[in-house]
Amino acid sequence: MSDYRRFYRQKSIGPLVILFSLFALPLALTIQSGVWEEGSFTLERIVSAILDPYTQRILLFTLKQAFYSTGAALLIGLPGAYILATYSFRGKKLIKALATIPFVLPSILVVLGFVMFFGNSGTLNTVLMKVFDLDDPPLKLLYSLGAIILAHTFYNFPIIMSIVATAWEGLDTKLEAAAATLGSSPRKVFRTITLPRLVPSIISAAALVFLFCFNSFAVILVLGGGPQFTTLEVEIYRQARMMGDPSSASALAIVSMLINGILFLGYAFSQRTLTVTETVAERAFEERKPSPMRTYFILLYSLFTIIFLLGPIISVLYRSFSKGASRASETTFSTTWYRQLLGFEQSSSHMGSALTALINSTLIGVAVSILTVTLALLLSVSIARRKKNSSFLELFGMLPMMTSSVIVGLGYVLIARLLRPSLFGTYLLITLAHTVIAFPFALRTILPSVRSLSETYLHASYTLGFSPQKTFRTVEIPLLRRTLLTAAVFAFALSLGEFNATLILSSSRIVTLPVVMYRLIGSYHFQGACALGSILIITSGLAFFLGEVAKGDSV
Amino acid sequence: MILQCSLQATYPDFTLDLAFTVQEGDLVCIIGPSGCGKSTTLSMIAGLIHAETGSIILGGEDISQKEVHKRKIAMVFQDYSLFPHMNVEQNIAYPLKNLKLKKQQRVQAVKELLELVNLQGYEKRKSTRLSGGERQRVALARALASEPKILLLDEPLSALDAKLRTRLREEIRRIHDETGITTIYVTHDQDEALAIADQVIVMDQGRIIQQGTPEEIYRTPRTKFVATFTGEGTILPASAFARTLRNPYHLEIPAKHRDPKNTSLFFRPHASHIVEDPGEVRLQYLPFLAFDEVRVIRSEFQGTHWRNSCLWNEHELLCHSERKPKKEIVSLHVDITDLSYFEE
């Protein structure tokens, strides 16, 4: 064992202890609270939770909406994957870029964008009413199962599209050509040669989307709009916050974690065992022009994608600058919501806390970003420079990804009950919860860069007379600075948009950007919510942009 | 500084056990096939890998337990490892920061080092925008800037094309001579080693097979491995000596030619002379070996000479000649001073 390996091994101790206390401790409290009653172990709560018809109904609904949403996302996403993988056309890059929006868009923003676009006085209805000269909005979508499924579909079909398209592009087209020369019709070639090789990617994309929909929180909370459409996550929040019964919430959380664990294992299994990578030197796109029918189809699909992915975002931006009655025809341009947001103008109670929320969220975001990147960097170098146990450590770092953010939040609620923190203390707990949630993403950003950094840079520095500590500071960190910046912005954006854990932790005195947005939506003050949402859009956009820049950048 | 190494280490598939001495100011090349442990040896001297037992005595002090950065050893890596976030000047000045120089002195030192490696005026260039040869020079300058007691070069030319390699190895020798720094140079290219080294160490499977001057190594290889690794030649059973010896002046034959332990004899292709006319008498006083009835199978033109593959009593003989042999059946003469022997 060389000296420098020891140096990097020691580097992991700090972050491991901190991560353990930030993640495992709240989780342990949740589990303990779920199975502990008056000083003794009991499974009664979990059993009764599972047997309770009310819970069963919720669980059934959770699975049902996730199932429908995944099905709908597949239905819309797969044709897109086909187009992206088969044809080369103008605007393809744009669609690929747009497909990454769901990965960076905070869920509360998705909800707001959905309401602004599909809502009764939303963009779509306004346009339809103008075009067809109607008096009433033709689409009444909000607050129903349909709304939930629609929102999930538009949030998730790009995930299916990009995962399957990437796999599809990786397939060797020579096999199709071979099958054709052996006498198979195009239809048969697709059914017997192409489709079987795509199945793994379709399964893994669908599993991922199912997992997202199963844990969906903000969409259900706002668009479900009642006990009729409650999922497990929302019920955990309701039990913990509104009923003040964290023990029942914990029992539900354990049930949710078990199901999540099974789903996640299924996803990991499908990724590991089914995926076969074919080596393709160059993907030959179809040389011949698509038939007029297909050109029409490609055009329609592209237009559809652009409208439905950009529409909600643009609606939010547009609404944040408009004032007046709900009908679009009567609105005028105004910066009043921004002036209220910045405190230049008097405003209603929720809008009045907007500036505080902006400041709070920014401060929390900065703290989260510094904390997360530091921890992720230290753990990354330690993982990359060690020979033994590296995959175990990596798995440990990714663990928070396997629990939903509502459950992370619940763990911190339990800690708050123990500590009874002051207002500042609660903000501190929120910061720590955000750190736990952002950590796996930062680790996933930083670790590959550290791994690809050639160790001979470090060796060169040692032989030139620099200690491992000095080398870490003067060579390693500067070489990683772009990745670190990307991870920092990413963590900041995640924290800024974090809604689930924050809401479950927050009392009425706690204000952050998404929480105030939620309150504004709840009181139908959409323009104000849009002004706050626009700030989120810009930060998310920046995170997205930096992520793209970093992708094309290799050390 | 004199360097005395004795290193032992065991790996799952490989055992390293060697001892050697490098004299002050020498340029020593370690050569051997890939996987023979030559780079491992270099990493051990640098301290990047630790030997299980052994000592590394540099200038009278055992440095084997010291940490890498305290050993005062500089190393040039195969891929040069210039720091991509620093320009040429910053790269070279990087080790100078440890020497506590004033800024003025630092700038001057960088300038002198760049002059040494023939890269005047390159201070502000980006290190990522340099050609392979330029990177190599900057890496060398950076290594020298740390004022090391010994310089280690790990296959410094292997990433460059053949023409550049020849030029840069001359440069490395020149820089070595100007600075007088004790240098260990690892390569798998025997031509490179023979061309620039004061001493050559031939390694195989974690052991030193032979150490000597390039000429000793080339002319009198002590094993078949050294003989074939450092170049071409002919290997025959030692019994061929008695069968082909001609000693027209009845001179005394040195004892090594009669040592019964040696089972093979060896000579280089340019040590043998083709005699096409049986009546031709070479002006030769010293004893020599004469292989008669040799069939020339194939002749390749190499630019400076012809390389002839021949067959003699079912043994293959290699022989260089200035002109292409005209006859198919010829004789080959080899002076006995050009013979070496192995025990295998």
Give a verbal description of the structure.
- The complex is a heterodimer of chains A (555) and B (344).
- By secondary structure, chain A is mainly alpha-helical.
- Chain A contains 27 helices and four strands.
- Chain A has helices at 3-11, 13-35, 44-51, 53-86, 92-98, 101-104, 107-118, 123-132, 145-169, 173-181, 186-214, 218-224, 232-242, 246-274, 292-320, 336-341, 349-352, 354-384, 390-398, 405-419, 423-452, 455-463, 468-479, 481-497, 500-505, 513-522, 526-551, and strands at residues 36-37, 40-41, 322-323, 332-333.
- In chain A, a hairpin with an 8-residue loop joins strand 3 (322-323) and strand 4.
- In chain A, helix 2 packs across helix 20 and helix 10 packs antiparallel against helix 11 (186-214).
- Chain A is globular, with a radius of gyration of 25 Å.
- The mean pLDDT of chain A is 83.
- Chain B is α+β, with helices and mostly antiparallel strands and 344 residues long.
- In chain B, strand 1 (3-11) and strand 2 form a beta hairpin.
- The chains are: A mainly alpha (555), B alpha+beta (344).
